[in-house]
Amino acid sequence: MAWLQATIHADSAIAEQLADVLMDVGALSATIEDALAGTADEQPIFGEPGEPVDQLWSHSLINALFAEDADVDLMIAAAANQCRIAVPGYEVGRVEEQDWVRLTQSQFDPIRISDRLWITPTWHVSPDPAAINLQLDPGLAFGTGSHPTTRLCLQWLDSQIKGGESVLDYGCGSGILAIAAMKLGAGHTRGIDIDAQAVRASVDNAAQNGVAGDFGLPNSLQPGEYDVVVANILANPLRMLGELLASHVKTGGKIVLSGILAEQADEMSALYAQWFDMDPAVFDEGWTRLSGSKRA
After folding, report:
1. Per the annotation, which location comes first and is thus the protein's main one (predicted)?
2. Is residue 112 part of a domain?
3. Cβ distance 95 to 80 under 8 Å?
4. CA distance linking residue 275 with residue 296, whole number of Å
5. Does 137 show up as a binding residue in the annotation?
6. CA distance 253 to 29
7. SS3 string of 68-106?
8. CA-CA distance, 53 to 13, in Å (whole number)?
């Protein structure tokens, strides 16, 4: 069995509507992605805490899957007509049947974070059974250890967690940083995310790794201070969250920030210097990790 896949160019004003209408006229699936993903012009999108995502990429691609015998040209024309737009540019290719599970799994190998810390998908045997192995499968929530921002935070935790520290992971995604902190010896650990799906994934991932983290939505976060606060988000929410995050760090405690582009490092370091003595920035593939100690 095979399918036809149309890759359709659309702008943010119409992409979501067009994807929905394509489903109505017979597409088997329709997903939207950044047309500039993987380039210097890639555009991160996100929702601020407590708010839904309300934007798409300026230049989007709709990947629509159709039955092998479908009249793709007619369906795209019909969808464009319903959306009252000209027929957009698109390319059509054939997708052969494959073992999608094996194909997906083959793209994810164990990731070495340090001599003692590995991220290992459940279908792999650990390369170093004596190391601390985080079992984490790629899923719907962000964070498998392969992205530089996650890697930078994991490396910090690996070098700085000595045992017993209280940790707050704000924007926990898959829970990988909170889980890593606990497996490295941290004490009470709390994970917060604006996405209920991420919270569920974090709970499941913690159970899979034999640790009992405390995960919830932002409105569940009570006043209190932690030895370590880590936030791997993006620069704009980190600008907005500075005072909140600082309020949850004990005097002498540490803050760890990532999701920051290299060119944003100086600005973000200066912002957080209101509350913290900032360490030199650390860079990886165009991304930045900032850290600092809370002043009295």
Report:
1. cytoplasm
2. no
3. no
4. 8
5. no
6. 48
7. CCCCHHHHHHHHHHHHCCCCCCEEEEEEECCCHHHHHHH
8. 14
Q: Contact 129/140 with Cβ under 8 angstroms?
A: no
Query: For the segment 13-58, what is each residue's pLDDT rounded down to a tens digit?
Result: 899 999 999 999 999 999 998 887 767 666 655 443 344 444 567 7
How far lies 29's CA from each of 20, 62, 64, 65, 74, in Å? 9, 10, 6, 5, 17
pLDDT in tens, 201-258: 899 999 999 998 899 999 999 999 999 999 999 899 999 999 999 999 999 999 999 9
Closest by CA position to 170, among listed 133, 195, 206, 140 = 195
Please indicate, yes or no, if residue 129 is contained in any of the structural domains.
no
Whether the pTM exceeds 0.70: the reply is no
**For 74-108, what is each residue's pLDDT tens digit?**
999 999 999 999 999 999 999 877 654 454 555 56
Residues 220 and 89 in one domain: no
Residue 171, annotated as binding a ligand: yes
What is the Cα–Cα distance from 139 to 137, expressed in whole angstroms?
A: 6
31 annotated ligand binder: no
- Report residue 232: phi and psi, to 5°: -105, 85
* Matching residue, tokens 């999701």: 259
Name residue 13's amino acid: A
- What's the start-to-end Cα distance of the chain, in Å? 66
236 annotated ligand binder: no
- Pair (9, 153) in one structural domain: no
By residue range, what is the domain housing residue 79?
2-97
